[in-house]
Write a structure and sequence with these properties.
- The complex is a heterodimer of chains A (300) and B (427).
- Chain A is of the alpha/beta class and 300 residues long.
- Chain A folds into 2 domains: 215 residues, Rossmann fold (3-Layer(aba) Sandwich), CATH 3.40.50; 60 residues.
- Chain A contains 9 helices and 13 strands.
- In chain A, the strands form 3 sheets. Chain A has a 6-stranded mixed sheet with strand order 5-6-7-3-8-9, with helices on both faces. Chain A has a 4-stranded antiparallel sheet with strand order 11-12-10-13, with helices on one face.
- The two termini of chain A are 37 Å apart.
- The model of chain A has no long low-confidence stretch (mean pLDDT 88).
- In chain B, the strands form 2 sheets. Chain B has a 4-stranded mixed sheet, with helices on both faces. Chain B has a two-stranded antiparallel ribbon with strand order 5-6.
- The longest helix of chain B has 41 residues.
- Chain B starts with a helix and ends with a helix.
- Classes of the chains: A alpha/beta (300), B alpha/beta (427).
- The interface between A and B is medium-sized, with 28 and 22 residues.
């Protein structure tokens, strides 16, 4: 049983192909990351899941059937382009959105108060939205997304513009919601977030899925052929070493890809005595590396 | 339906609670009274100011009659309005005028009237004053001088001025409106009622149309549109907004109407007490047949929704108010054109041009209603225009829904007309 099932979806805007023959199966209860560089077609795909944009061809099923008015209340959606009615009071805005999602007026206030308390915004309930800081408004927007207790939560760039404390708060809430059995789909181009919390991913580039599946399986495919290195000094001398495929040097740390069957110990030998090694770990490649490689390859 | 209701409720409360709404609703009637009643009261109650005029009578035979004529004009307290000082004409008229001019500047006189010796044979008299914008006063002086001079001329010819006045008395032409109710005297009142009805229609469509335009833009500029659309259909949002704002308008009109009712009940006696003249001005209004009000409501509602849909479509297609002003121009033109050709339709309500123009759905609310108030057109024409208007309004709401659905999510550059037409064809 899938939360979202897209089959052979194509969408063009004029001559521009935003999404090309995209098929996605998102299992229920998953924490699903939709990745891709800017303009890859993430937002368009999400809008098609919600029937805000209608695909040129292909089918979309949400929670087991084509999206209709009875399904809409079961979905919570945080758009990338998000705003609130600035002249309304926080409590009124939340009530309004809860109501159009079909929450009974008798239940709405309880849910609203609970969420406001969770995000430490209770005292702002009777303030106008425009009086809130941007970060607070973003938290209210997140509450709008979940206030009606949806089964499927779709978040387009949920961490965009949040400070580290609020990022953690939102991330924790997302994990809590998943623990309650909700399906969460979120798009991002920040790999470290995906790596931390996702079960499944789909990497989109230029409207096409280039990589799809369970995150740990994808990483395993790449094998433990990567050295994560923390160092002091300079490692420019490693360039051209026979066992090294590629170096991503960040100055104090580096990700070194080995050639097939090369031995990591050879690299360690080269390093000793020339730089101070603080960490030397043999790992699967980071999602970031996979991302850059995949996107870079399809770019050629 | 329930969701449309939620949108209506939000839209309504949002507008009604603004300070602008309260101010406009409360101050509106006060301003209306201010604009219409106060100048009228001033005109009626003002008797002007006293004038001291120097009169130089070159003929030496006009002054006394002229003074007698002017003595009829009194101030509120009964004292004469015009005080005349006779000044003997001197040989050098230019020098005398210069001298008098100086006295006027010094404030000795309000002004002077110079009657030349040849005034009876066609000479031109002069009135000089520091300000010459009091047209009423100039008219009074001119008429007084005229009647005296003409009287003198007639006497010279041996005619009796009283008889002549009798012979040349103007004929009064009363206008009578013939209708099913019989005959009634009408001094232009029914024209004013027509005008007021058409203006209410026009103003409502312009004011609330642009309110809808801005309202539709609200979701777009506040970027809440996607959240709203993930909860309901675009059509529900559009209809909710249009109906919500329509209700705001109705509320405003209800408040104004009840205010107007109070004024009509008690206002007359207030105005009457201040200015008895207003009551006896002989202003007569032929009574308006009841069916006119029914048609007014029909055309009002249809017209409102037609233009509401048009403005909603425009609002959804643009990105900001500046673009909205440009794109709304053709829509506003559809409202301005009938107002411009109104004069023509009043003059010839049954000409073929009037008939055709009043059948065009975009003009029908104003022009057909106007024809109905002037003289009831053939039933087929009225039914035809209402039928066309209903079809167009329903079609326009459907079309606006299509444009809205695509337009509301569009951001970035302003769409061209061909692009908007393409949106209509989208699945």
């Amino acid at each position: 049983m899938y939360a979202v099932e897209m089959e052979h979806i194509t969408k063009k805007f004029g001559d521009f192909v935003a999404v090309k023959d995209l098929s996605l199966k998102i299992p229920r209860g998953a924490m699903f990351g939709l990745l891709g560089p800017n303009g890859a077609g993430k937002t368009t795909s999400i809008r098609m899941m919600l029937n805000i944009i209608i695909p040129d061809s292909g089918t979309v099923a949400v929670l087991g059937k084509a999206l209709d008015e009875t399904t809409k209340p079961k979905i919570g959606y945080l758009p990338e382009d998000r705003g609130l009615y600035p002249k309304m009071k926080v409590g009124e805005v939340l009530e309004f959105f809860a109501e159009i999602k079909g929450v009974a007026r008798s239940i709405a206030p309880k849910s609203i108060d609970r969420w406001l308390a969770k995000f430490e915004l209770s005292e702002w309930k009777n303030k106008k939205v425009e009086q809130l800081s941007k970060g607070m408004q973003q938290k209210i927007q997140f509450i709008v997304t979940v206030v009606h207790d949806p089964d499927l939560i779709i978040l387009d760039e949920p961490f965009g513009g949040l400070d580290p404390i609020n990022t953690k708060l939102v991330k924790d809430v997302m994990l809590e919601l998943r623990a309650e059995g909700k399906t969460i789909i979120f798009s991002t181009h920040r790999m470290e977030q995906v790596e931390m919390i996702c079960d499944d991913i789909c990497l989109i580039n230029r409207g096409e899925a280039v990589l799809q599946g369970r995150l740990h399986e994808i990483k395993r495919q790449y094998g433990k052929n990567t050295i994560l290195l923390d160092y002091e000094g300079t490692i420019a001398f490693l360039q051209g070493s026979p066992e090294i495929e590629k170096i991503d040097d960040y100055g104090r740390s580096a990700e070194i890809r080995l050639k097939e069957k090369a031995d990591a110990q050879e690299v360690l030998k080269r390093l000793t005595g020339r730089v101070r090694v603080n960490k030397f770990e043999i790992q699967e490649p980071s999602l970031n590396t996979i991302f850059i490689e995949k996107v870079g390859r399809s770019e050629q | 339906m329930k969701k449309i209701w939620i949108i209506i409720k939000r839209e309504y409360l949002q507008h009604v609670r603004t300070k602008t709404f309260v101010i406009v609703t409360v101050l509106g009637p006060i301003l209306m009274i201010g604009i219409t009643v106060i100048p009228a009261l001033l005109m009626i109650s003002s008797k002007g100011e006293k004038s001291t005029l120097a009169v130089v009578d070159g003929t030496r035979e006009i002054q006394s009659d002229f003074a007698a004529k002017l003595s009829e004009f009194k101030m509120g307290d009964g004292s004469p309005k015009y005080t005349l000082a006779e000044i003997a004409p001197s040989a050098d008229s230019a020098a005398q005028k210069l001298e008098l001019g100086r006295s006027v500047m010094a404030g000795t006189y309000t002004g002077y009237v110079y009657i030349p010796a040849d005034v009876l044979t066609g000479g031109t008299a002069e009135y000089a004053s520091r300000h010459t914008s009091d047209l009423d006063k100039i008219k009074v002086l001119n008429q007084a001088l005229n009647s005296v001079v003409v009287g003198k001329r007639l006497k010279t010819e041996g005619l009796d001025p009283a008889k002549i006045a009798e012979y040349t008395r103007p004929v009064r032409l009363d206008t009578i409106k013939v209708s099913e109710k019989g005959q009634e005297r009408d001094t232009g009142g029914s024209f004013i009622v027509t005008f007021v009805m058409v203006m209410i229609l026009y103003m409502t469509m312009v004011i609330y149309g642009s309110m809808i335009l801005r309202g539709v833009l609200e979701e777009k500029t506040n970027r809440v549109v996607e959240i709203v659309l993930s909860s309901l259909r675009p059509f529900q949002l559009m209809m909710g907004k249009i109906l919500g704002i329509a209700l705001v308008g109705l509320t405003q009109y209800a408040i104004w109407a009840s205010f107007g009712f109070l004024v009509s009940q008690y206002g007359g006696s207030i105005i009457g007490a201040i200015a008895p003249a207003a009551k006896s001005s002989g202003f007569a209004i032929a009574s308006i047949p009841f069916y006119v009000f029914i048609y007014f409501i029909v055309f009002f509602l249809l017209g409102f929704f037609l233009f509401a849909a048009l403005y909603a479509a425009v609002g959804s297609a643009v990105n900001n108010e500046k673009e909205a002003q440009q794109m709304a121009f053709p829509v506003t033109m559809c409202l301005i054109i009938p107002i411009m050709i109104m004069q023509y339709v009043i003059k010839s309500p049954n000409s073929s041009a009037s008939v055709i123009l009043s059948l065009i759905p975009f003009f029908a609310p104003i022009l057909m209603l106007q024809r109905i108030t002037i003289i009831m057109p053939p039933v087929a024409q009225v039914a035809g225009s209402i039928g066309l208007l209903i079809i167009t309004t329903v079609g326009m709401i459907w079309l606006a829904g299509k444009i809205y659905r695509v337009g509301i999510l569009m951001t970035g550059k302003k769409p061209s007309l061909p692009e908007i037409l393409k949106w209509i064809r989208y699945k």
